[in-house]
Amino acid sequence: MTAIQTPEPTSGLTSDAAPRTMIHLDKVSKVYPGTKVPAVEDLTLDIPEGEILVLVGPSGCGKSTTLRLINRMIEPSSGRIVFDGEDVTDVDADRLRRRIGYVIQQIGLFPHMTITDNIATVPRMLGWDDNRITARVDELLDLVGMDPSLYRDRYPKELSGGQAQRVGVARALAADPPVMLMDEPFGAIDPITRDRLQNEFLRVQADLKKTIVFVTHDIDEAIKMGDRIVVLKERSQIAQFDTPERILAHPIDDFVEDFIGSGATLKGLDLERVRDLDLTPVLTIHAGESRDEVQRKLSQSDDGWVLLLDEKNRPHRWIGEHHLQRTDRPLHEVGPRVTATVEPNATLRDALEQMLHSTASMATVIDRDGTYQGSISINTLTDVIKRMQADAARHYGEAAKS
Ligand SMILES: Nc1ncnc2c1ncn2[C@@H]1O[C@H](COP(=O)(O)OP(=O)(O)OP(=O)(O)O)[C@@H](O)[C@H]1O
N or C: which end of the chain has fewer CB within 10 A? Predict the structure, then answer.
């Protein structure tokens, strides 16, 4: 692994054509009272507007401290914090916090208050009238997938862990803050519910486009949730700051490589969608075609297969040379059935999974109606992986030169 620098890692500038900066940390440090080693040391970081920025790193590296410095739940020992162009290092912390939603792992719902009152905490502080609050609570419960009529009058102990976490997100969104800080928000939840909450949250964020700083120690969660990822080492030192794709394709040093762990290539395939590919043209036939015609197409086929489509252009069977020899049965009854299908929205990892089950070693792409769109072969995936690695290497090569 070449130890070239992440583009401007220590300056903390984003390495891609990033949106404008919403929050700027300028050489921020935190030394807790009674300790000698800073929890965060000289951290300079630009947090882009409207994106999810994930802080990921090993336990104790300073992620939570960094997050809490942003809304001044913890006061920095030195350095400046600039929020939307304004130096907020010394402004009233309450005023700052109203512009920043905060979600934590243990949710922190008030047990003696109903869900409505929990969600309405900040709007009440801001003096909203009751009608506006009721409408907002219902809107937010809807947004996080909970029926307001069922849940608005319940108490936190009457919710499942996943529902409580959704309410935590709704509460953080209540006054529509431009910024959300999320500290391991889905950490204490079982894997299936966690996956669902992550997906729901990504869907909500696609509409809301909040500036989000999201802390996790789980690299897979970072890759899934982050538009950009900051990999942190001890004292919140930036090891690498980049898009998930580039971090996976080009970990900057052994620390990042070890932190990503095994399977980086497969994780990279998880980030690419079938719809973005140039699909491999596979020769197709219809049931009515003569065996001579099919033979002619087979002889032109690189991979020894032609794809038989049904009358609605849906993939039906793979036909190879030896199936053609079976003259006792019509073509649409010979050859293995096509089972390995994916829709354009699927990830390339899904496509690979399908391919491994396919007799023809190909994933067949269909649209919602089942109509054939094209095929993906292992060569297609190899090309994608090479391209991702070459793009990242070029990016870092150019950054190193400049
Ligand atoms: N209130 C405190 N007083 C003294 N030291 C603290 C305090 N809070 C955190 N620390 C120390 O600061 C360092 C960073 O802690 P922090 O909680 O920010 O790390 P983290 O990366 O979020 O860890 P984790 O992933 O385990 O939650 C740790 O060494 C921790 O022991």
Answer: C
